[in-house]
Amino acid sequence: MADSRNGGDAKSKANDSGYDINIDDFVKRLNIFYKCWADEKNELWGGADAVAVFTPPRAEASELRYLKSSALNIWMLGYEFPDTLMVFVQGALHFLCSQKKVKILEELQRPARTSCGVDVVLHVKLRSEDGGPQMLEILDTVKAQSRSPVLGVLAKEKTEGSFMEKWDELLSSSRLEKVDVAAGLCEMFAVKDESEINNVKKAAYLSATAMKTFVVPKLEHVIDEEKRMTHAELMEETENVMLDPPGKLKMKLKAEGADVCYPPIFQSGGVFDLKASAQSNEDPLYYDATAVIICALGGRYNMYCSNVARTYLIDADTSQEKAYKALLKAQEAAINALRPGNLMSAVYKAAATTLEREAPELSSFLTRSAGAGIGIEYRESGLSLNPRNEKVIKAGMVFNVNIGLQNLEIKSSNPKTRTYGLLLADTIVVRDKGPDVVTSLSSKAFQDIAYSFKDGDEEPEERPRSKPASNGAEPVYVKTALRSDNQEMTKEDQRRQMQAELALKKNEETARRLAAGAFGHGEGHNMVKSSGEMTAYRNVDELPFSRELMIQVDQKNEAVLLPIYGIMVPFHIATVRTINNHQDLNSSIIRIIFNVPGAGFTTNDVPFQKFPHMIYLKEISFRTSDIKHSTQIVQMMKTLKRQVSQRESEKAERATLVTQEKLQISKGKAIRLSDLWIRPPFAGRKRRRGTLEAHVNGLRYSTMKAEETVDILYRNIRHAFFQPAEKEMITLLHFHLHNHIMVGNKKAKDVQFFVEVMDGVQNVGGSRRSHFDPDEIEEEQAERERKNKLNKEFEVFVKKVTDLWEQPALRNYGLEFDIPFRELGFHGVPNKTSAFIVPTVKCLVELIEFPFLVVTVEDIELVNLERVGFAQKAFDMAIIFKDFKKDVLRIDAIPSTSLDNIKEWLNSMAIKYYESRMNLNWRPILKTILDDPKKFIDDGGWEFLNMEASDSESEKSEESDKGYEPSDLEEPSESEDEGSDDESVVESEDDEEEEADSDEEEGMSWDELEAKASKEDKEKGDESDSEDERRRRKAKMTGKTRASPKAPPAKRFKTR
Q: What integer best gives the mean pLDDT of the chain?
């Protein structure tokens, strides 16, 4: 397929298939070449007296490339001639190539001379030669064209291979003036003849048929069956279908002539790139409500290209429908403007004018170009349909009209549907009568690309408007209020109303995501360890010889040999779990515990899978009197185990890294910022400052040490932050990445570059200096100037990089530097130390203390404010992520004075928050939600966190409990409540006795009453007696045992 993609090899095709060069096409196009060169020599060919075109060596199988040298070969000869030099001079065409290619080209000499008056001169390069003498001969011919000859070349094509390098070397030493003739070749390729147009139409037929008969049914099947299929899988299946049109598409096209211009592109799920360089990623196809799916196919037939792109809408809302219909009209206007005599700029202007009329709010989202010419090259750069191209459209030209709307947004909390793009592309042949849409087989009418999967009989229910939450317990006061009080209440009411609406939306969104099974993938805290493939020795012969039965450590093979029953048994060090050495006065015991199934490893362990029925050694101990040897052996084993573990850990970290493209170094002077530190730092004790440079597709940080280099690609940057030094001691640039990269031997997702604006250490041992000390004032002024200077340098760097990101090639990444809002910041403890946490436009960050805190707002499910109460000086914040398998982030010890500001910020970012009086254990809560999502949804979703609702329910239950109190129960008096517990007990006992005495007094005689009175006087004793003595005396006389007054009184339960 590589031969087909890159024009094929003339040598192989001619010899293997017997296919010859079409002499008629060659003669006709050779005449066109010389005529175009003569007519536009000064305007397009730079006044060239000769034209040299060198075709580089054949490309690799997986590489798709479009070169003007290859296009000239295909256009004039029918296929590509790699490693071939063509030099056009007046009246002659020189070829320098291998012997086999010369044999093919010999048949061109006679017709070229008779029909064109051009001599075809063939120069043979043998394998053992570098072609230098032949090149010098050709250069002498060029020099003979005029006194100061000008040689036309393709200046932008890179030098490849030793043959081409030799030509460049001799050309440089010849001192010939060189000009770029790419514009002349582009003009020559622009107008196609009927045979070329026929190939374009077949390529377009391939693209449109694949879209209609394979891609659309495939998407419908995946969506209808709710299958999971990635964009890359769709791309691979579609490409295989397009490469075999007779078999899989039932088309009457030869399979050997069919190919693709680029791998098919499928995009959905909120990530859209409307450029031709876009690729299908590994994300699954996303087709929930309001989802957008973009499909682009580029069919190629006999080396001629075509393109078709369609956008499919799933349960589109009104704004999406309006945007698509406006884009469709804009594309139709652009196509209608492709008429002979019109300027190419008029095509884009027609599209822009139509869009401005249909939907003026979308004009700023229109792509910068309406497409370009297409043919042997996928994009003919000189025929770009942009507002600045003033070239005239001619009949026979072929265009790829490619128009899109990018970075559109709808009101949605789902990041996969919030941002979307629209794209339409068709291949157009310009005829005298008007444009001919050769990809019209694939429909783009709204009714054909819009899908609705809602039940037709279901009508959307009207959702009642939520009212501000109220617990119903607060009385309404009618009074004259201050103006500030009214504003405070109004703001709180608005916040409550907003939160009530967010609660409804959040519960619906969570329910929908849980029902779809979108639980997330977590961050690996539940990953199981695996011992991997462990082989110390392949056979017995590799075991080291030992005369004594002693424990040995084989560093080379990473094994430990243990004497067991008179035999040295090897164990790979990875099988060892722990090693202990217990020593006493005369002996030492070495205890080795092994990794076995059930002790930190599972049935996924490789040894257990290979030998499931084996018996594993769990532990072994050795006793020795040689304490010195045992200590040495244990130390060696621990060192070896640590080295192997560190190596495997680093290998595992590197295995999880995503393969990234190489950094493209800028040719000119790079944007640079010097003398920076990096965090996380490189390994080693000595730290070095480095330089940060901005290049074509990424940033590079490097120090004086060669291996201390970090590349950050722009496509891998998720968030970029610039934080100037205000109250901090550092100015910094921070990059939060999509995928981890290696910084030295550490895996990092956050990389920071900073410089210290003042010394972090001050002399506190000396005497205190006066505020009016001239030296002190001078130092403060110097620090202030240094801080302002460094902040200014960082600002200049940030501005230049931002301008770089605004270029068309990088604009779709949506990169910009975010500056934290200090006025919205608050103090808290996200890790182990207190830090100042600040919001940004898209994140919540803390970039001073390490480890850093970067929380993306769109990743947050909701926030629970814990330990919130009137008597609390601080509260905690629990951030729950949409990925329920990810640990909840806690920020502790936030001052209560920051509560209102945090609520206001959360409300402004449309983040639902709840309040609770205690901390919650979130891991079991999330596990319960994941285990039974249906029950969570049925129980009201997140409303179990609603503290106000729970308070009102508890108050209602208390009021209902009061109804069960007996009606004759009297309320305790104030005097009873005021007394202490001890006093109430004593008083109640005395009351009981008085009641008993009153019962006895009824029916007593005077004598009995007098005796009773004297008895009581004896019990009471003197007035000077203490209360304790009177109690003891009374207890003796009555014979009753009373509780000691020091004993705690019995508790009396009060009815509530």
A: 81
Reported as a single tens digit per residue, the pLDDT across 759-774 is 544 444 444 555 566 7
109 token code pair: 């000499």
Distance CA 211, CA 635 (A): 67
Indicate if the alpha-carbon torsion angle 763, 768, 774, 778 is positive or negative: positive
Structural domain containing residue 643: 547-647
Pick the closest to residue 281 from 265, 297, 293, 296 (CA basis).
265
What six digits make up the tokens of 267?
Answer: 């995009």
**Range in 261-265, 807-811, 949-953 the model is least confident about:** 949-953
Same domain, 369 and 277: yes
Q: Please compute Rg for the chain using Cα positions.
A: 43
Number of H helices, E strands in the chain: 30, 39
681, 606: one domain: no
| CATH for 890 | 2.30.29.30
* Cβ neighbours of 522 (radius 10 Å): 14
Distance (Å, whole) CA 785 – CA 793 = 12
The reply to whether 199 and 144 lie within a common domain is no
Q: Is the pLDDT score of 862 beyond 80?
A: yes
Say if residues 342 and 394 touch (Cβ distance below 8 Å). Answer: no
Closest C-alpha to 77, from 30, 122, 38 = 30
Backbone dihedral angles phi then psi of residue 293, each to the nearest 5 degrees:
-125, 125
Distances (CA, A) of 510 to 451, 504, 859, 884, 942: 24, 10, 13, 10, 9
Cα(249)–Cα(241) distance, integer angstroms: 7
DSSP 827: E
User: pLDDT band at residue 1024, thresholds of 50, 70 and 90?
Assistant: very low
Quick one: tokens of 39? 């007519």
Of 488 and 790, the one with more pLDDT: 790
Q: CA 273, CA 406: separation in Å to the nearest integer?
A: 8
| pLDDT of res. 313 | 94
Q: Which amino acid is at 762?
A: Q
Q: Which of 189, 222, 253 marks a domain boundary? A: 189
Residues 788, 866: one domain?
no
Please check whether residue 369 is in contact with residue 386, taking contact to mean a CB–CB distance below 8 angstroms.
Answer: yes
Q: How many whole angstroms separate alpha carbon 218 and alpha carbon 224?
A: 10
Closest CA to 552 of 541, 539, 532, 536: 536
Within a domain: residue 494?
A: no
Give the closest residue to 183 by CA, choosing from 367, 48, 320, 339: 48
Distance CA 673, CA 47 (A): 44
Q: Residues 531-543: pLDDT tens digits?
A: 445 677 878 878 8
- Quick check: helix, strand or coil at residue 411? coil
* Beta strand 435-437 pairing with 450-451: unpaired
Residue 606 has a pLDDT of: 53
Beta strands in 98-167 (DSSP E): 119-124, 150-153
C-alpha 272/C-alpha 658 separation (Å) is 20
CA distance 576 to 435: 76
Cα separation, 432 vs 1016, in Å, equals: 136
- Give the start-end residues of each E strand in 438-584: 450-451, 552-554, 559-564, 567-572, 576-583
DSSP SS3 for 895: strand
Which of 351, 370, 371 is closest to 362 using CA atoms?
351
Q: How many domains does the chain have?
A: 5
**Residue 1053: which pLDDT band, with cuts at 50, 70 and 90?**
very low
Distances 286 to 199, 238, 265, 289, 312 between C-alpha atoms, Å: 36, 18, 14, 9, 12
DSSP calls for 558-592: TEEEEEETTEEEEEEGGGEEEEEEEE-SS-EEEEE
The pLDDT of residue 1001 is 45
First to last CA, the chain: 87
Residues 6+ apart with CB under 8 A from 826: 836, 837, 894, 895, 898, 901, 902
32 and 51 housed in the same domain: yes
Residues 399 and 416 in one domain: yes
Give pLDDT, residue 62. 57
